[in-house]
Structure formats: structure tokens, C-alpha cells
Amino acid sequence: MRKLSHMRFFLLLLSLMILSATIAGAVTFTGDGGMIVSGDGTDDFSVVDGVDSSYDYSSIVTPPPDEEREKGPGPTFAKSESFDIYLMMGDGSMELVDVVAVGSVNSVVKLYGETMTVNTCLLSYEIGEVEDEQRFAMVNAPKNGYATLHASANAKSAVVERIMTNRVALVLDVGKKYTRVWVDGMVGYLQTTSLTFLAGYRENTYLAKMSFNGKTKSRNTINIHMNGKSKSRILDDVICGTPMTVFTTTEDGWTEVETAGWHAWVLSKYVTYDDLEIAAQ
Fold first, then answer.
1. Rounded CA gap, 253 and 237, in Å?
2. Which residue, 255, 225, 226, 222, is CA-closest to 239?
3. Strand 106-111, strand 35-36: pairing
4. What are the tens digits of pLDDT across the range 198-240?
5. How many CB atoms lie within 10 A of CB 143?
6. pLDDT band at residue 18, thresholds of 50, 70 and 90?
7. With 90 as the cut, is the pLDDT of residue 46 above it?
8. 227 with 265: CB under 8 angstroms?
9. Which of 121, 134, 98, 106 has the alpha carbon at shortest distance from 206?
10. What percent of the chain stands above pLDDT 70?
């Protein structure tokens, strides 16, 4: 009999582990298709106030699919339409830029091969009749962890991508049920109820960088969270030196920031301010 290849052996071993865990009660399946390898299958997706969640980042093996995934292998992802964003220069001219990370206050763009942090209000792009207080939004999907970006304002339209909660989007047109956005380099429609609109201007914001032991030049990565609570969902790990906009800090050691395209929270000890006077406060 032929020996199994390493890959086949690994897959067989993984299947046996999942089967054994299921029998032992360590694996549970949520009603929307998610698979949880610890807990009782309820707390991981509980929502207390629409923001707080007892989600454990290490416990989810597969993202819970929505209805479209349950009918066969999954939806066919549509290609996003092209969309140009320009930066207003000091002389009033406009230059086409690549947006690396968008924020409601500051964004990171690439121009002529150089990466720079700019005020988001200097970015110009085609939008509909959008109120100033609705120019930017954060994806707010604490239960499943993502919202579905559709090609048109229809739940049955093609899926462009699944956008994780707390990602920042540029709002292009606001509708009652669906809102047209630019997010992560893609244009599409998100359910309006899955968005939290952000003010484009807020007083007392500061520029800072992610750091470890006060050092911004480090290979260390820092976890950013969905909210300022120790058990909140971990959104991503961000490398030290990554620029961020700081909004608020809490007495128990959390800082609200926008960084790398996220509106998130990070432990205050990992924040190093660009302004030395602010850092000394």
C-alpha cells in the first residue's frame, strides 16, 4: 500500500482531531455555520450592548458564513469598480494617490513611491449628496465579525468582499437600506445598519505611533481591539512604527485610535506620541 503524502497525512490527522473533539463536546457549531473549538457555543457570539462582545480571538476556526455560502461552495466574488482618489497639494493642484489606509481624520497614502500621512480632508473623490457628519463610517458588526460588501444595493447581488468589523470606509452615497462606500480599495454597498458614521473632524486628536517599550523601531506587533476591554475582539496585530491618530484615553489604560485602516482600541502603554510635550503629560 502506498504511503500517504505529508499533506494527506496532515489532513487526515486534522479530521480525526476535529471528530474526536466534537465527540468530546469541545467543538460546537453555531446556527450560522461558525465552528467554535472551545466554550459552550453561546457566549462567543453574544452581544450585550451592540458594542461589547465576549468573542475570543483564538477560538474561531472558520468565519460564520451568511446565507449565500450555505447554498453550495459559496458566492462568486465580483470585481470592484475602479475608483480614483486625489490628494490636494499645497499649490492647489490634484495628484492621483494610492490610499494605503483610510481614517476619518488622517489617512496614509502613497505618492510617487513615498508613503505619507495626510489629513483626510485633503483627499478628493466623487461622492453623492452626503452630509458632512456622514462622510466617513466604521463597519459595526460585533456579532459575526464582518459585513458583506455587495456589488449593488441588493442583498441578492454579487458579493465583492466581506469587510471585518471596525474597518473605516469613505462614504460615497447614503441610502435607507444600503450605503455605497469605498473600503480597503473596493467600492460596493454595505447595509446602512452595519455602519457607524464618524465625524470627519474632532478636536484634540494627536498623531502617534505604535511602540513596544517606548520603541517605535521594532519588529514587535501589537494587538488592537474592537473596544477598550481586555476580553474584546482582537482585530489585528499592528507592527511597531505604524502611524495612528489618537482620540481618547481611559483611566484603566486604553486608547481609542485609528490606525492601518481600523478604528480600534489599544493598550495605552503601546502608544508613543509624535509630540514630545504631549508624551510628557
1. 18
2. 222
3. unpaired
4. 987 777 899 999 999 999 998 899 999 999 988 899 999 999 9
5. 15
6. low
7. no
8. yes
9. 106
10. 71
Q: Which of 30, 44, 27 is nearest to 143 (CA)?
A: 44
Handedness of CA 50, 201, 272, 251 (dihedral sign): negative
In degrees, rounded to 5, the angle at the alpha carbon of residue 254 between the alpha carbons of residues 251 and 138 is 130
Q: Which SS3 state, helix, strand or coil, does residue 72 take?
A: coil
Q: Which one-letter DSSP state was computed for residue 37?
A: S
Q: What is the pTM of this model?
A: 0.72
Please spell the DSSP secondary structure of 166-215, one letter per residue.
TBEEEEEE--SSEEEEEETTEEEEEEGGGEEEE-S--SS-EEEEE-BTTB
Q: Sketch out the chain's domains with CATH numbers.
A: 6-64 (no CATH), 84-125 (2.30.30.10), 129-202 (2.30.30.40), 206-279 (2.30.30.40)
DSSP one-letter code for 47: B
Q: Which residue has the cell 458632512?
A: 132
What the block records as the C-alpha cell of 28 is 460546537
From the CB of residue 167, how many other CB atoms can be counted at a distance below 10 Å?
Answer: 26
Which grid coordinates are listed for 227?
Answer: 473596544
* Cα distance between residue 112 and residue 96, in whole Å: 10
End-to-end Cα, the chain, rounded Å? 71
- pLDDT tens digits, 57-67: 333 333 444 44
Rg, the chain, Cα only: 21
